[in-house]
Automatic annotation (TrEMBL):
UniProt protein name: DnaJ homolog subfamily C member 25
Family indicated by similarity: Belongs to the DNAJC25 family.
Transmembrane segments: 39-59, 162-180, 257-280
Membrane topology classification: Multi-pass membrane protein
An example Gene Ontology CC term for this record: endoplasmic reticulum membrane
Gene3D superfamilies reported in the protein's UniProt record: DnaJ domain
Matching PANTHER family: DNAJ HOMOLOG SUBFAMILY C MEMBER 25
Principal localisation: membrane
Region Disordered: start-end pairs: 1-22
Domain J: 68-136
Naturally occurring in which organism (per UniProt): Pelobates cultripes (Western spadefoot toad)
Keyword set, alphabetical order: Chaperone, Membrane, Transmembrane, Transmembrane helix
GO biological process: protein folding
Length: 372
């Protein structure tokens, strides 16, 4: 609409002055039509803009799709949880597929029922409802809406910390049971070795344990019961007198995974303190190594774990100390000697000779015909 010029406005004022009735009507309160759009058109325009912004916020595949979840349930955005639940129950009873016979009407009711259930799932949770309201108010942040929707949808229903705790406890129980089984197998094996069995039986006789078993056998005890009791006494002597090391050593509860995780800060602090002490004592002060430190360096040179090194016999460790294997040069000489000795043993071993002859003549990948 073109705005009237100043000349047109002056002519209208002159016409009003020429017509006293018209001027009088204007003075009585009759509104004058001023130039510009009416107020009703402005309100309609603002409403259309709000609807357009809300429609732009609705994304297909998120929440209720192109429909507003509040409109699906027939509630306002200020509705409480009770109102939302009440509206959902009413609509669920109305559109439940079991109320309709198979056909087009049943399919339409099923689709509406799914939409109602989706709207209820969206609005019943405070966090999901907050994200949905934010999407309606900020339609331009598409990536944020996708992220929050799928992060909540794909998030695990169970607390991850609880899952980790249960897993660690299960692994710890299995670990402890496995160690006890290995330890009992080692005790049962040592009880069959004559060397350890004779020593254990001699200790039991000196302590009078076997004599007590025989005395008990006189009072209504069979020979099998006496033998089993003597066997248990020998095994107990082996457990208490023999220090089993390595993978078959007696399990400690602090060695399982659960306590290892709990005590990890303590172990870390202990290792850092030990490492600082090592640097200060042997690198800065230049002090000589003790026997414990020498054995530690030997174990590191041999690339053996603490359990493997502890399982070695004491005379072998003494031999390592005599050869001064904590010195890197001496250890390299020792390693070469061991390799040469192993080669000589293999060269003189008849089984190794047969294996080398088989590899040379036939080998695992060679095709041959069998002679009749």
């Amino acid at each position: 609409m073109r705005r009237p010029t100043c000349r047109a406005g002056a002519d209208e004022v002159a016409a009003d002055m020429a017509d006293p009735g018209k001027a009088e009507g204007a003075q009585r309160g009759v509104p004058l039509l001023l130039p510009g759009p009416p107020m009703s058109l402005l309100l309609v325009g603002l409403g259309l803009l709000m609807l357009a912004g809300q429609a732009a916020a609705l994304i297909e595949g998120l929440y209720c799709g192109r429909q507003v979840c509040y409109d699906v349930l027939g509630v306002s955005r200020d509705a409480s949880k009770a109102d939302i639940a009440r509206a959902y129950r009413q609509l669920a009873r109305k559109y439940h597929p079991d109320r309709y016979r198979p056909g087009e009407q049943s399919e339409e009711a099923s689709e509406k029922f799914i939409l109602v259930a989706t709207a209820y799932e969206t609005l019943k949770d405070e966090d999901t409802r907050k994200d949905y309201d934010y999407m309606l108010d900020h339609p331009e942040e598409h990536y944020r809406h996708y992220y929050h929707y799928y992060s909540r949808r794909l998030a695990p229903k169970v607390d991850v910390r609880l899952v980790v705790l249960v897993t660690v406890c299960a692994i710890s129980l299995f670990q402890f049971y496995s160690w006890w089984s290995s330890y009992n197998d080692a005790i049962n094996y040592l009880a069959t070795v004559p060397k350890y069995r004779i020593q254990a039986a001699e200790i039991a006789r000196q302590q009078g344990l076997l004599n007590k078993a025989k005395e008990k056998g006189k009072s209504r005890r069979s020979k099998e019961e006496i033998r089993q009791e003597e066997e248990e006494i020998i095994k107990d002597i082996i457990k208490n007198k023999i220090d089993i090391k390595g993978g078959y050593q007696k399990p400690q509860i602090y060695d399982i995974l659960f306590f290892q995780i709990i005590l990890f800060p303590y172990y870390l602090f202990k290792y850092i303190s030990w490492y600082v002490w090592w640097i200060y004592t042997f690198n800065i002060k230049r002090e000589e190594y003790g026997e414990t430190e020498k054995l530690y360096l030997i174990r590191k040179n041999m690339k053996m774990s603490e359990a493997q090194f502890d399982s070695l016999e004491d005379h072998r460790k003494e031999k390592f100390l005599e050869q001064q294997l904590w010195i890197r040069e001496n250890f390299e000489v020792y390693r070469q000697e061991q390799e040469e000795e192993m080669k000589q043993k293999l060269a003189s071993d008849p089984r190794w000779k047969r294996y080398r002859r088989w590899m040379k003549n036939e080998g695992p990948g060679r095709l041959t015909f069998v002679d009749d």
